[in-house]
Amino acid sequence: MRMALLRAEQAAEQGEIPVGAVLVAPDGATVLACTGNLTHTRRNPVAHAELLAVSEAAERLGGWRLLGTTLYCTLEPCPMCERQRWASAFPAAGAGIAGRWREVAGGASGRCAVVREARFTTG
Ligand SMILES: [Zn+2]
Fold it and tell me: Pick from 70, 36, 69, 66: which is nearest to 50 by CA?
């Protein structure tokens, strides 16, 4: 989580929304990706820290399945990022640990929780 917080600080210094994410391998020690938000820098609306971490880790591993990984992020992922994290870790879902949960906009526990919606998690 400390690494994710540092990335969030770096993102803030770049004028980004301060969110950092670290994706850790199933061994609990190997960092597969450490990213910060880059939506403004890249002028890309999907360059959220969490999606960048999932993408970077998949590229590093040479596959899109991220079974047993853990995503540490400074803010609970939005529904878009949470859905992608869940899909990448299915069927042995990985874990997500957030520094701060969001009641309204959170994709894991908030009112927009996609992982509780069967229509978003099957098929
Ligand atoms: Zn997001």
Answer: 36
